UniProtKB/TrEMBL annotation:
The lineage of its organism: Bacteria, Bacillati, Actinomycetota, Actinomycetes, Nakamurellales. This is Glycosyl hydrolase family protein. Signal peptide: none annotated. Belongs to the glycosyl hydrolase 1 family. GO terms for cellular component: cytosol. Gene3D superfamilies: Glycosidases (3.20.20.80).
């Protein structure tokens, strides 16, 4: 990385991000086991049912097959050393909502508490995400995010977590990307809980935002000083210059970039999307009180970004009038994701321009797929280019305070199982041995160079 690419402000924070479901390797309920109590198994997650359904996970694995981050004290010690030697200022972890409501919740709190203490002892701040696409199965059987009551349940969960570990958490993320969880989990069925409600899934999105509001209240009451949410954003391009494709791209951009952001800043749910809900043409928050609850002041706003998208009109589909298509001119990573760091610059600047009340920004998730192995030069280049894109956005007026790379360890990538290695560290799926990749050393050098700069 060149010196010009390191022109980031003093105090800019470099971190990593992980998800409990993806890395912990604990508590996956084998729901096909007659000894388990089926769908009410204490501590079971929506991912257990999803993974037990044939064909749902690409390689047939479950979350128990992840890198076993919390499975043993040896793994915890190794991972803490890897994080420390990387030189990051902070680590964004998520908690297992499902495990923390099960019979062994006390044991899991103890594990989290020790892990947080270990990181703090090494000078690494801890950022906690309350849920990263996880939900207790018992909550799902009561309606999940399709019912408003779940929002209050989530607020109660936030209060309990804050009471247990809040004294050592520097920043809180209420939830990770309600857009992705809504679209993939409730709309298209390609992630847990596996529902295919299409446009009507937006009800789950609204209830997640209300849940964010309750969680924010609970965290504030506990004394939390830094509270935000992480939303997924992208740059949307039409597949052609036709009027239909341009309109489709505009509609998709509203769904992806505004539906879960406008309400946070008091603008309400975008009315342009009401037509996607055939049964609820006047979709909105249930009350003015809910809208106010969602729009509480935030201390920061998290931006998850991986790649841009191209959208074409689907004129024969009255329910979802757009479709994502491949950009024939775009370079892609090993999973086919388009590579365009400049789109991240545009996303950050557009957010800055669109929301006058926008708090400081963090890029809370960013990463790419490369072929298995430790020589991942493509990931090194990806990191360089996206850090440069952030620096460009800062120079043009965006207040970006930090960057989190997804992720430290090759992990269980939800519906993709173990087929998509995105970590800075390779993990042997059998021995769980960890081997730092070229990108691990590259990211460490980048962080060290930033800290060594004389400002």
């Amino acid at each position: 990385m060149t010196e010009s690419n390191l022109l980031l402000p003093r105090g800019f924070g470099f971190g990593i991000v992980s998800a409990a479901t993806a890395v912990e390797g604990l508590d996956a309920a084998r729901l096909d086991d007659e000894s388990a109590s089926g769908l009410t198994h204490a501590g079971a997650s929506i991912w257990d049912v999803f993974a037990a359904s044939p064909g749902r996970i690409v390689d047939g694995t479950t979350r128990a097959d992840g890198p076993g981050h919390l499975r043993s004290s040896a793994n915890v010690s190794t991972d803490v050393d890897l994080i420390t030697h990387l030189g990051v200022s902070h680590s964004r972890i998520s908690l297992s909502w499902s495990a923390l409501t099960g019979a062994e919740s006390g044991n899991r709190y103890d594990r989290y508490s020790r892990y947080i203490d270990d990181l703090l002892a090494k000078g690494v701040e801890v950022v906690v995400t309350l849920t990263h696409y996880d939900m207790p199965l018992t909550v799902m059987t009561d309606g999940g995010w399709l019912v408003r009551d779940t929002a209050e349940v989530f607020g109660d969960y936030a209060a309990t977590v804050a009471a247990k570990i809040g004294d050592r958490v520097s920043r809180w993320v209420t939830m990770n990307s309600p857009l992705v969880h809504t679209a993939y989990g409730y709309g298209l069925g390609i992630e847990a809980p596996g529902l295919t409600m299409l446009g009507e899934s937006l009800r789950a999105g609204i209830n997640q935002l209300v849940g964010h509001g309750y969680a924010t209240q609970a965290l504030r009451a506990s004394g939390a000083q830094q509270i935000g949410i992480a939303n997924h954003h992208t740059r949307v391009r039409p597949a052609s210059e036709s009027r239909e494709d341009i309109a489709a791209a505009e509609l998709y951009s509203i769904l992806h970039n505004r539906a879960f952001t406008d309400p946070l800043f008091g603008l309400g749910f975008p009315g342009e999307l009401a037509g996607l809900i055939a049964s609820s043409p006047d979709l909105d928050f249930a009350s003015a009180a809910d809208a106010h609850l969602v729009a509480q002041p935030l201390d920061f706003y998290g931006v998850n970004y991986h790649h841009p998208v191209m959208v074409a009109a689907a004129t024969d589909n009255a329910t979802i009038p757009f479709t994502l298509v491949e950009d024939p001119a775009a370079a892609t990573d090993d999973a086919g994701w388009p590579l365009d760091p400049s789109a991240l610059t545009q996303v950050l600047l557009e957010l800055t321009a669109q929301y006058p009340a926008l708090p400081p920004l963090y890029v809370t998730e960013n990463g790419t797929h490369t072929a298995p192995g430790i020589d991942d030069a493509d990931r090194c280049e990806y990191v360089d280019q996206h850090i440069t894109a952030i620096a460009a956005a800062i120079r043009d007026g965006a207040d970006v305070r930090g960057y989190d790379h997804w992720t430290l360890l090759d992990c269980w990538e939800f519906g993709e199982g173990l087929t998509r290695p995105m970590g800075l560290v390779a993990v042997d799926p059998l021995s769980q041995d960890r081997t730092p990749k070229a990108s691990y050393h590259h990211y460490a050098a980048l962080i060290a160079a930033h800290r060594a700069r004389s400002y």
